[in-house]
Sequence to fold (499 residues):
Amino acid sequence: MAAPNEKPRVILRHCESYDADRIHAIVREGLEALDLRPRGRTLIKPNVVIAHKEIFPHAFTRPEFIDGVLGALRDRDGGEMAELAVGERCGITMPTRMAFSQAGYYPIARKHRAKVYHFDEVPQAEVRYTHAGRMRDYVFTPEPIAKCDFLVNCPKFKAHPWTTVTFSLKNYIGIQDDRHRLIDHDHRLDEKIADLQAIIQPKFIAIDAIIAGQGRMLTPIPFDLKLIIMGNNSVAVDAVCCRIIGLEPKTVDHIRIVSERGFGPIALEEISVEGDVTLDQARARAKGFKVGLVRVEKYFEGTRIRAYAGPPPEPERTSYCWGGCPGAMEEAIEIIRQLDEKADAKMKPFHVVFGAYKGPIDAKPGEKVVFIGDCANWKGRIAGKDVEVGSVYKDRRHKDPYHAKFTDIFIKMAVVFRNLLFRRKQQVMRAYGCPVSVAEQALYIAGIGGTKNPYFAPATVFPFIKNWLLWRMVKIMKQILGMPYQKRLPSVPPPAPAR
Fold:
């Protein structure tokens, strides 16, 4: 992090391809320019929300990139580094082991003698929040994050359907396990991301923007930027990334909130932008880059899914739940499309409803209508019949992180299949949750629309089951050995704001 009276620095470097040696050299030069050396427990946090070499090739931080970063950190070790590690929690209820395997991380870690942490298999440590404006007084984070001395944040440069973009700050969603990351993953997601910054601040940021991801975050459309973006302040890095794609950083809520809390500047005059690519040149490269943030009704226009959305339970904050169920539905359909290229053509028509929707639902007899999420609330007539769906939403004050529950993917499958079975002769059904996860919504799409179950598709079924079994074995062994899942660590002071 920059000294109090020194401008945060952001370095833009050209990188033609995923050449690990070239990445190694560029990142080492970035560390040298910023006068940074790893120390103590050094941990790289990539973005591996989902990974598959053929199906999801652009969703994650590439292994060649991590190879280069690990090598550069080894080069810069002055003898003070006690441990070098890579850690992450992937998304959509997949075992992180599967994501790491598909991403090709294991041989890279062995090459550099780096430890691998699957954040869904390690103890979760309580961290107390003390800052003003916090949503909660405490949260949980994986123990390797809580004990980290030198965090290296290595996101993928991507668009995001919930938060517009995912750069350095948004990558923090992966520093929580499933049962904790889904708490507050709703219309206040940007505030949750801002709060997570109080857990730890990275000493170094290196963003994989060689091939960026536009439009979405799980199934992004590749976009050649040929950039490596480095820096020593997350807010400054994200502000520059926004300007590269023509966004005003203040319009991205989590970036604005974190800056207002003093963690870094977003004004260009307060940031030193350096490197062999100018900001104007980077902007020229990014011309036409498409971000996320498309309302669900618009997203499904012209398809066999008809979507309707009303406001979330706190309508004074927003008229739409950008961080919850609607965006998860958008990601779910893209997963289905990746696994079944004929999905749209063979899908049966159905309707999905979110939030406190008040308009008509134009469903013909036989077309399923799914009310998604605890806050779904509607009263009217569907195909000539009176229908009333009430909200069962519970205020976040009643959601204690100590009592958060994890739902295994096979339990989620069982719940969805049971709902589909028992409601097969009824036109209207309800999917409960806040949020209803991408995994569950993908299962509903597959079950109602008649497409492939994404977990049992031929390309994914064997690695999924293999890594799920390994994950379960590890969890069972730790329970037998009496290793706690959640623990309190000795209090540590929160990271100081950058200015």
In short: DSSP finds 16 helices and 19 strands in the chain.
